[in-house]
Amino acid sequence: MFVSKKIIYISAGAIVLLFISSIISFLGSGNSNLPLEQITTTEEVVEINPLPQSGDLYKVVKVVDGDTVTINMNGKSQTIRLIGLNTPETVDPRKPVECFGKEASDKAKEILTGKEVRIEKDPGQGDYDKYNRLLAYVFLEDGTNFNKYMIEQGLGYEYTYNLPYKYQKEFKTAQEQAKSQKRGLWADNACKIEQSTKTTTTTSAPAPIQQFQTTTESKPATNGNYICSYNAYNCSNFSTQNEAQAAFEACGGVNNDIHGLDRDKDGVVCESLP
User: Fold this and answer.
1) How far, CA to CA in Å, does 184 sit from each of 101, 148, 181, 208, 243?
2) Cα dihedral across residues 187, 213, 243, 136: positive or negative
3) Are the C-beta atoms of 87 and 64 separated by less than 8 Å?
4) Strand positions, DSSP E, 45-126
5) For labelling alongside 151, which of 29, 101, 232, 250 has CA 20 to 30 A away?
6) How far apart are CA 134 and CA 105, in angstroms?
7) What does pLDDT average to over the chain?
8) What's the whole-number mean pLDDT along residues 188-208?
9) What is the model's pLDDT at position 36?
10) Contact 86/234 with Cβ under 8 angstroms?
11) In whole angstroms, what is the distance from residue 67 CA to residue 77 CA?
12) Is the pLDDT of residue 262 over 60?
C-alpha cells in the first residue's frame, strides 16, 4: 500500500512538470520562426548624413563655384547645388571659363568661405541631384538669401529646372532688376569685351548681346540666331520642348551644352515642357 502511494505521488509530479513544460513551449512558439538575432537584438538604423534642419547653422568648407558649395554637416562634407541659380561655368573641364564665371566664383568665395550658413530645402525640388549634391537655398547668418543675392548682383542667372520652386517669382524679379540696372554680366558689353580678346581673328560677331540683355521677356531667337557664347537661356525661356531642343542642338548639343539645358546628359532637354 505504501509503495502504491509513492508511485501515485511520482506520477502526479511528472504530470505537473509535463504541464509546465507544455505552457513554456507554447509561450515561446510565437518567436520560434524568427532568426536568433531578431529575438535577442533590436534592428539598428544607420543614417548617413541626415538632412539639415532649417534652423541649424553649417560651416562652409569649400566654394566650388558661384552656385555650388560644400558644407560640414554633422562632421561630414556635403556638397550643395543652389536651387534657382545658375552661374557661368568655371570648373567644367569640358568647357572654357564662361563670361563672368570668375567674378561669380570669387564673390561666392569672398562671402561664404569659412562662414556659417543656414540651409533650406524645397519639397518641390527633391533632396539630391544625380551627382548626390543636396539641393537647397543658402542663407547667411543675417538672413540674406545668397541664391537671390547672386542674381540681384548680376553674378548669375535665374534657373528653373523642370518644376517651379519656392522663390521662383522673387528670383525672376531679381534678374529683371539686375538687367534693367545693368549689373554684373548684364552691363553694356560685359561679355562682348571679354570674348573679343579671345577671338580677335573672327569676322562674324555672334548675336547682339546687348539686344538680348534689354529684351524684357528674355526669349531666345527662333530663327536659328541663338546665343552660344555664354549661358543665356534656361528652360523657362522656351514655350515648347522643341524650341529648347533646337537651341540646344544649334549651340553644339551634348558637346557644348553651354546653357545647361540637358542636366541629365541624355541628349533631350527641358523634358517638362510641352
Assistant:
1) 11, 14, 9, 17, 28
2) positive
3) no
4) 57-65, 68-73, 76-82, 85-86, 116-120
5) 250
6) 19
7) 77
8) 51
9) 40
10) yes
11) 17
12) yes
The C-alpha cell that represents 55 in the structure block: 534652423
E strand or H helix that includes residue 63: strand 57-65
pTM: 0.56
Which domains does the chain carry?
A: 50-187 (2.40.50.90), 208-274 (no CATH)
CA gap 172, 178 in Å, rounded: 10
Tell me what percent of the chain is helix, strand and coil, each rounded to the nearest 5.
Answer: 35, 15, 50
Q: Please state the separation of Cα 199 from the chain's center in Å.
A: 35
The C-alpha angle 220, 173, 250, rounded to 5 degrees, equals: 15
Helix ranges (DSSP H) in 158-240: 168-180, 190-196, 209-213
The amino acid that residue 4 corresponds to is S
pLDDT tens-digit map of 126-154 = 999 999 999 999 999 999 999 999 999 99
Report the C-alpha gap between 114 and 193 in whole angstroms: 33
